[in-house]
Specification:
This protein is an alpha/beta fold. The protein contains five helices and six strands. The chain has a six-stranded mixed beta sheet, with helices on both faces. Strand 5, helix 4 and strand 6 form a beta-alpha-beta unit. The longest helix has 19 residues.
């Protein structure tokens, strides 16, 4: 767990097992003014959320210990007011359907983001816009 925090009102928790994703997405969000706390273990995030108010959580679907939909389900019981953004690096219609039923804000995989700078920017802006909408700012 690492933190880049400024204000508790705009804390975004990021949950992913990939250290490179945690580093890049947390830097992206921090560059837009968000306070970011990262977790590479879903269980650590669920412990943290029991003691801290978190307005927004960004959770990867594909993690080995516990998938993101399970994390979201447990989170809803612990902190129903936390808004959730689910993201994935793999396209899977069944997972997308389940995620959209559980969480209305789902970021698709960045497959197109690898093809051009314009697509990379578009994918980055999706994260920022979705996080702002979830925070209500």
């Amino acid at each position: 767990m690492t933190a880049i925090e400024k204000s508790s009102s705009e804390i975004v928790c990021l949950v992913d097992d990939d250290p490179a994703v945690l580093k890049s997405v947390s830097r992206l969000l921090a560059s837009d003014g968000f306070s970011v706390r990262t977790f590479n273990q879903p269980e650590d995030f669920l412990v943290y959320i029991q003691a801290h108010r978190v307005p927004v959580a960004i959770i990867n679907v594909w993690m080995p210990a516990m998938n993101g939909l399970e994390v979201q389900s447990r989170l809803r019981k612990i902190s129903p007011s936390t808004r959730v953004i689910i993201f994935t690096g793999k396209e899977d219609a069944l997972v997308r359907s389940a995620a959209l039923k559980a969480v209305p804000a789902t970021i698709p995989p960045p497959a197109a983001a690898q093809s051009s700078t314009g697509h990379q920017l578009s994918w980055r802006l999706q994260f920022q816009t979705c996080a702002r909408e979830r925070l209500g700012t």
